Amino acid sequence: MDVPGWLNDQVLRMEWLSDLVTAGVQAVGLDPASQIGGSVQFFFYDVIKILILLSVLIFTISYVQSFFPPERTRQILRGRSGSGASTLAALLGAITPFCSCSSIPLFIGFTAAGLPLGVTFAFLISSPLVDLASVILLASIFTWPIALAYVGVGLLVAILGGTLIGRLGMEGQVAGFVRNVPVSDRDQALTRPERLAYARGQVTGIVRKVWPYVLIGVGIGAAIHNWVPASTIGALLGQDKWWAVPVATLVGIPIYADIFGTLPIAEALVGKGVGLGTVLAFMMAVTALSLPSLIMLRRVVGLPLLATFVGVVTGGILTIGFTFNAITHLFN
Fold it and tell me: Which of 3, 21, 69, 301 has the fewest CB atoms nearer than 10 Å to its CB?
């Protein structure tokens, strides 16, 4: 018996849940092979699976993250600079389950504490783009190589983006009031009950915030999976179309969601033959360049710095999209 394979299928992919939902669809008189029955099966299976995994993962990750509050993170990063500091900031950002808008207050706190601009931007890029939960959720829908590849390229974008912005010397583009924000460096150790309470609170808060986007994402994914012909998707976003990656990136920017809402859409697009790089570009644009987060960021940085941030991240996303489309065969 292939124990790792069985665990991946039953624990992550939750094939038992798929069978249960399929039986429920059949019990109400729908054929899972039909468009309507298939859409209902896709919707309920993905919603339930994502919310279960999300709750378990956020609880676990939040408990771990309770050891790295903003005060401790600032202490770890303070006095560091260069690519090594950007790498550390990106890795710390990966253990913080925040969306792009939630990362802005942390960015302000880091800047007020005197951390280098490149370090704060590495964290700002990494935090919404890559987190430990995304690894598990991606693996539950795709494969472990794809999940690890997404995390790897996400960290690479954060590290290179932060390092480049740090070397451009644009500290003067940060609004003056940001550096005058009071900062507390009090690093109070939590007790175990307090950490458990914090983890439960994170689950409640994050699930309440993301569940509408999960429903919308799964709904769109179900529609694409069961109602949009593969030929239509291929004509617009096929791997042989040079414009697929730029279009996916532009489409993703106005959407305010996180990786949990984009996963069902990505799953459906890959199922219709869209290139892996195109799908990764879409997911990264949604999570790292969402329009609401850019509007919030504009309130604390000048337009040249904002344009540099968008340009650096967009360039990284496009490069990753084209590269992964060229090497998709390696993941088959």
Answer: 3
Nearest residue to 281 via CA among 300, 294, 262: 262
Q: What are phi and psi of 301, to 5 degrees?
A: -135, 160
Residues in the chain: 332
pLDDT in tens, 224-248: 877 877 777 777 777 778 888 998 8
The reply to whether 160 falls in a domain is: yes
Domain that holds residue 214: 31-180+188-331
- Residue in the block written with tokens 């925040």: 98
User: What's the mean pLDDT in 106-121?
Assistant: 76
Q: Quick one: average pLDDT of 125-135?
A: 75
Residue 301: DSSP 8-state: B
Helices (H), 168-302: 192-227, 230-237, 244-252, 259-271, 276-288, 291-298
Q: Count structural domains, the chain.
A: 1
10 located within any domain: no
Is residue 13, in this structure, part of any structural domain at all?
no
Evaluate whether residue 267 is within a structural domain: yes
State the Cα–Cα distance between residues 150 and 145, nearest whole angstrom.
9
